[in-house]
Structures are given as C-alpha cells and as structure tokens.
Automatic annotation (TrEMBL):
This is D-alanine--D-alanine ligase. Mg(2+) 2 binds at E314, N316. Keywords: ATP-binding, Cell shape, Cell wall biogenesis/degradation, Cytoplasm, Ligase, Magnesium, Manganese, Metal-binding, Nucleotide-binding, Peptidoglycan synthesis. GO terms for cellular component: cytosol. Residues 141-347 form the ATP-grasp domain. It comes from Periweissella fabalis. Belongs to the D-alanine--D-alanine ligase family.
Length: 380
C-alpha cells in the first residue's frame, strides 16, 4: 500500500517590495521538493495582498503574465465577501502543512503565521510573535541588547521626532557615515548610506516611504560581511559560515547584488575565517535565535570590523531560496543538500505544531456577575 503523500500548501508573492523575489524562491522550493513524498498546492498573493487560486497561481509560477491573470481573477471575485482576500484557500481542504515562501510584509511580519494558527494548521518557520519581532529591526535590537548580543549602535527616527535630529547631531553620536534603513523592510530595500547632511535628508525621506520607523546606525569601516544559517527548534544547529565580498566600488550588499546581478559579487563558501571568530559568531547566532524565540529556519547576517569584532546585523526568518541565496548554499557546504534541507524544515514545522498542541487552555464559566459598590469621589 502506497504511503499517503504529505500535502504542502506553498504560498508566495505578497504585497511587499520583495514580491518577485518570492516568486523565484517559490519556484526553487517547488522544484526541489520530492514529488514522491509531497503533493503540492500553490497559491499566490497578488501585489495587492489577494490570494489567487491554484490554477492561476500555477500559471504565474510557470512564468505567465501576472498582472493580466490577476486582473481577470479580480473581475470575477466577490469583493463584498469580507473573506475574499483568502477565499481561494477553500479550493483545497486537506493541506497538511503550509510553507509561506513570502519575503517581507505579510510573510515575515507575523501576518500569515497568525492565519495559519487560526486555521489550526502546521506551518514552517517562526510563530507569529517571533516573526513580527524579528521583522522589526528596532525591536530586534532591543531584544539583542537585553540578551547581551553585540549589534551596531543606532538612533530611532520617526515622523514625530525627526526634526529633533540633524545630520550633525547624529554624526556626533554615531560617526560621520550613517546607515539609514526602514525598520520593517527586507533585502536592503530603502537602505542608503549618508556621508553629509544632504545625503542624510534624502536617505531619511526615502526610508520613510517604506516605514514610519527608521533606524540610523553607526557604520563599520570596510567590514567583512558574513552569514550563517540556522535550522531547528529548541535545539537549533548552525551551518558553516559564508562570506560575501562585494565589489570595492560598492558600499554594501544591496538589493541589486542580492537578487538581480550578483556577477560582481564573490561568495566564499565556506568562509575562510579564524576558528575563534567562527565560534563567537555561532554562539551569538544561537543566543539571538533563542532570545527572539525563532523556530524552523533563519539566516543571520553579521558585519566584522577591522579588529575582528563581529556585530549581528539582522535575522531573516524566511530567507531567500533563489539561485543566489546563501541560506541553502551554506547548508550545502555543511553536508545537507537542498531536497534534504526542505525535508528537515517541514519536519520541524510539524514538530513545533505538535509541541504547541500540548499546551493546555483552561476555560472557566463566569456564572452570575456580582459587582461591588461604586463610589464616585468627584462629580461626573
């Protein structure tokens, strides 16, 4: 008798600046999943955050023109239905586990994870609260500072306080070269370096388009950029480190390098690194992973200064799975191939769901309400 396949709901797209990155990652994940083990149903969130059905989603994943297909589906949709944005999920009733291959908003900010919890279904990756905290770079820094994990010094800028901070005041506190980035965006979207007042104003205005919280950070002069992959739940394991070497004329590993043109970037896999530094980064990674209560999988980025001191940059709870992405490549050089890696990620998703199912919820009937005497000490 044939073993029943595990039914995976693969979700991609979303209303974020990383929509197209998600499409590439989903294509890779779909191709690598063992079709002998898994039945796969595909759903795409449009650029407006509306879930498309499996037929349209499959066509788009295969390269069909997205905007035309989405427009045709929207014309047929009953938008008066409050559940219209997720109604397509009703097409498939027996999904065993969800895999959100969604980067940025909707996927990494806790939104989709909360939906899965409401549906009482297993899913891969961090739970909703941990996802939301890790996606917010400022909240992440607060938790890292509390846990004693080294990261770069920063100032939080918002529309309400931005007039209190000039380039000169920030430069006096953080250094003359500032790194400006939205708190809740991924893949270097909205990030810029500023070396003077005019560049700072331009960078701040650009970042405020993407979020109302903006981090202005100290920069590290000519840092080494290192990354590490983490896999697991209560007892996570770390991969070997990878190093990203960007062209000398580029200041940091930006969106273009990550997803569009990596031809000028060198990836050292594994990184050629001193054992003591590697061990320190591994320990910092695991400490951060546990402090942020992450689960399943995460890639963590580090910067190392000229004195060999590492600073944790940020965690990525649903790291890219494109051909350029380092998360699977770092596991490849650590002895875990792509297909095996996906199996492990799915198993950790089931394990976390099973663990949470054992939590007890006590329900107590209130009975008749009894209210004490109210004494008003001032005339209402």
């Amino acid at each position: 008798m044939a073993t029943k396949k595990i039914h995976v709901g693969l979700l991609f797209g979303g209303n974020s600046s990383e929509h197209d990155v998600s499409k590439r990652s989903a294509r890779n994940v779909y191709d690598a999943l063992d079709k002998e083990k898994y039945e796969i149903s595909i759903f795409m969130f449009s650029k407006d955050g509306i879930l498309m059905g499996t037929e349209v989603s499959n066509k788009i994943l295969d390269g069909a023109a997205e905007d035309e297909l989405v427009a045709a589906e929207m014309a047929k949709m009953d938008t008066s239905n409050p559940l219209a944005p997720i109604a397509a999920l009703s097409e498939v009733s027996d999904i065993d586990i969800f895999w959100p291959v969604i980067h940025g908003n909707l996927g990494e900010d806790g939104t989709i994870q909360a939906l899965f919890k409401l549906l009482n279904k297993p899913f891969i990756g961090a739970p909703q609260t941990a996802s939301g905290m890790a996606f917010d770079k400022e909240l992440t820094k607060r938790i890292l500072n509390q846990a004693g994990v080294r990261n770069t010094k920063y100032v939080l800028i918002t529309p309400e306080n931005k007039d209190q901070y000039t380039y000169e005041t920030l430069a006096a506190e953080l250094g003359e070269t500032l790194f400006v980035k939205p708190a809740k965006q991924g893949s270097s979207v909205g990030m810029q370096m500023a070396h003077n007042a005019s560049e700072y104003e331009a960078a701040l205005n650009n970042a405020l388009q993407y979020d109302y919280k903006v981090l202005v950070e100290q920069t590290i002069d000519q840092p080494r950029e290192l990354e590490i992959s983490i896999l697991g739940n209560e007892k996570p394991k770390v991969s070997k480190l990878g190093e990203i070497i960007v062209p000398e004329n580029e200041e940091f590993y930006d969106y273009n390098n990550k997803f569009v043109d990596a031809s000028g970037v060198v990836f050292d896999l594994p990184a050629v690194i001193e054992p003591a530094l590697a061990k320190e980064i591994e320990e910092m990674s695991l400490k951060a992973y546990k402090a942020l209560e992450l689960k399943g999988l995460t890639r963590i980025d580090f910067l190392v200064d000229k004195n060999g001191v590492p600073y944790l940059g940020e965690p990525n709870t649903l790291p890219g799975m494109t051909n350029i992405s380092l998360y699977p490549q770092m596991w490849q050089v650590s002895g875990i191939g792509y297909t095996e890696l996906l199996d492990e990620i799915i198993n950790y998703g089931f394990a976390e769901f099973e663990r949470n199912s054992k939590i007890s919820y006590a329900f107590q009937e209130l009975g008749e309400e009894r209210v004490g005497e109210k004494r008003y000490t001032e005339e209402i």
